[in-house]
Amino acid sequence: MTKRYDYLIVGAGLFGCMFAYRAKQAGRTCLVIDRRPHLGGNIYTERIEGINVHKYGAHIFHTSSPQVWQFVNSLVEFNRYTNSPIAVFGDKHYNLPFNMNTFYQMWGVLTPADAQRIIDEQRREVADRLRREGVSEPRNLEEQALMLVGRDIYETLIKGYTEKQWGRQCTDLPAFIIKRLPLRFVHDNNYFNDKYQGIPVGGYSLFIDKLLQGIETRTSADFFEDRAYWEGLADTVVFTGQVDEFFDYRLGRLDYRTLRFEHEVLPVPNYQGNAVMNFTDRQVPYTRIIEHKHFELFGQSVYDLPSTVITREYPAEWEQGLEPFYTVNDDKNNRLAEQYRDLSAHTPHVIFGGRLAEYRYYDMAPIVEKVLNMTIL
Questions:
Q1: How many CA atoms lie within 13 A of 229 on its CB side?
Q2: Catalytic sites, residue numbers
Q3: CA 182 to CA 204: how far, in whole Å?
Q4: Global pTM?
Q5: Residue 1's pLDDT band (boundaries 50, 70, 90)?
């Protein structure tokens, strides 16, 4: 006799694992399946040369919610890692986010007033040009960014990186993609404004193991290869995959962006001196190099291990068979996604959750908070 479950959870990413944890706490039975050969989705980490490697790019947990921070730390200890990425353009390095260190590196200015003056002058140049052309609102991402930060910051730190990330010219991207670009007139390289941030000590896979402790799981299991079988195992399906695929693309296909990761072990203890380096020059084919040991080793402890692991990230157009990483939130896709969300809301015995099932970009903490606040029946 085939065993039945209260919930079949399709996708062992953060939403699926959080839901399974909450369901088990509520006394419900779950089966979690994933078509990848491992659990954890995009936050999966693998230990290589004694280093916890983020196999699908850098994931820094950050939140201002005490409830969320206390919850994740009740499962595993999170360290004090502070995200302070560096931008590389040509032979120069710039601190991120845009702050007084960045402005000094770019213009040699020493005071907030001098930095503000340069930015305001460049903004006015753009506003005057658009006004002469009879344009009242930015028509594309390039004009929007220029209005927010001026020419120098845009051309050095935004343009090339954005075009690589999206695979399109900034003039062909909608303005609403960049709603704001924070400028900090203080010397502060802390990328996030949240009160709490860190990395699980021992890697995210340890965190996922804690969430799924005592829960049945199956990897290399594709829901769509035998959908009727999988759906027959449970009263309710929790679906975290591509929403358009779930409905067999009946309304049309949504667009996604993907990433290719190139991992390399290097026989040096310290390759770039920072966990995250963004390459903003359009001519460099990758967007970032991640040096993973800096997520959990600090200061002199970096040299305790004689080798290091780096990952280069290459954005690409998504096609069938590749992993979809980012939604494409332009007008066309947003309209189609809204239709799929309406269809999802009227589909009985299925719960849709996560960035692919909802076609929305999520950081990790909002996913945790969302599932913590869900009522599990």
A1: 8
A2: 180, 184, 257, 288, 313, 361, 363
A3: 29
A4: 0.94
A5: low
